[in-house]
Specification:
It holds the Pfam family UVR. GO terms for molecular function: cadmium ion binding; cobalt ion binding; copper ion binding; kinase activity; zinc ion binding. Keywords: Coiled coil, Kinase, Transferase. Residues 111-157 form a coiled coil. This protein has 2 domains: 5-93, no CATH class; 106-158. The protein is mainly α. 62% of the residues lie in helices and 0% in strands. It is built from 9 helices and no strands.
């Protein structure tokens, strides 16, 4: 979920704007943890609706409802214990990404960003071909070729 400054101001009641002009990440994440099950698949909805089975962290004894209330885990083991609970939320927050990509210094890994972009486009191309969206696939193919040509040109300049 991406929220621009304007949207955050417009939704100040739902995101609890604080006196410094920002909004509370805790309240935003709490809202995501309490999301409407109609937007999730049935297995995700079941994770949030099993009051008889309270999962506890073996190390610090924290429960998922306690995490939902505080917005913080008690220890590092909580991440493993509640993994199946937080993965759907992280997918929603991070536009489907659940793997940390990190930042790459421009001087050292300038081409790495382009390579990752090419990999992502190739995955998208395969999906479009499976869905028989051939016109969109052709556009993606052309983008891949263009990026690969730029990448090869940069390699030749470095040599």
């Amino acid at each position: 979920m991406h929220i621009c400054e304007q949207c955050a101001k417009e939704n100040s009641e739902s995101y609890s704007m604080n006196e410094s002009g920002g909004f509370s990440i805790h309240n935003l994440l709490s809202g995501l943890l309490n999301f409407d099950s109609s937007f999730t698949n049935s297995s995700e909805a079941q994770l949030f609706q099993q009051p008889d089975q309270v999962l506890r962290c073996k190390k610090c004894n924290m429960t998922f409802p306690e995490f939902r209330k505080t917005g913080r885990f008690g220890c590092s083991e909580c991440y493993k214990t509640f993994h199946s609970y937080i993965t759907p939320v992280l997918r929603k927050v991070h536009s489907g990404n659940t793997v940390h990509a990190g930042k790459i210094p421009k001087r050292i890994g300038g081409n790495l960003h382009v390579r990752r972009q090419i990999e992502a486009l190739k995955k998208e191309l395969k999906e479009l071909i499976q869905q028989e969206e051939f016109e969109k696939a052709a556009n993606i193919r052309d983008q891949i070729r263009s990026l690969e040509q730029n990448l090869n040109a940069n390699k030749e300049e470095e040599d």
